[in-house]
């Protein structure tokens, strides 16, 4: 994998250890032997943690299943569940008023079954996910009925997206599987190896990962022009199920770009597994954003003002160089749908 090619660039000896007297080098070697024993215990610890995660995941599954039935209108929460979900500081007067308003709404307005667009709203409140979701994607993601996770027999996990019947594809579920390497890494942690996604069975003309451009072509001999339709890739959340592949060649620039994309892809998968699925209702209401923003503020404390000034200078340079066009081109590109990815701010985005 890419890490193997990059490995030769790090960990090179400075020559200092080799210059030490033989008795000292022997002691250093002895410390390495002790470190190996420590590493074995770390790997054992991580394995125990994984077993504990699986044990409690089995206890979480009935709760996730109950959540899915409520979201999809197959059942209603019990009175005990509703009471447990209320804020602890909610006073009786406000509670009584809310009940009266709810009764009035029940009479005047028909209520949809379940919680419409639950998962779409939750995903749009997650910053990284919201940046992937385009306007066109939303119609398909409104049909998302559940997001589940399961552990693999080998190290790794699978994310399962369940959909109601829709106009875009025939899949009932679309899965993405993340695999870890069999051997643990430094510190006993599991090392990400690769990911695989299901093929989406798009209905005719409904592929959200491509768009059609009208391209004007000019015949060099006759100077006549014609307009042809060209299919080109476009931004879409559903590209998530086609993870980046490690290049076969040795291009360092390509390897660096893929390395970054692989890291982002894995981080997003971990976020869905560790944050979105366990606390979906907090992402739906937007409450989870409070904790995310707090974490970001803590991270920003690690940076000084000089770094921010450098970033501002880089942004100014980018603005000066963006948007340059070639006026001599003979081709004109038109987008039929005019759709561009939607960038959302860090705020609750319930529709």
UniProtKB/TrEMBL annotation:
InterPro entries: NAP-like_sf, NAP_family
Coiled coil: none
Gene Ontology annotations for the cellular component aspect, listed alphabetically: nucleus
Example of a GO biological process term: nucleosome assembly
Compositional bias (Acidic residues): 77-93, 291-317, 324-335
Region named Disordered: 71-106, 291-351
Biased composition (Basic and acidic residues): 94-106, 337-351
Family membership: Belongs to the nucleosome assembly protein (NAP) family.
Protein name: Nucleosome assembly protein
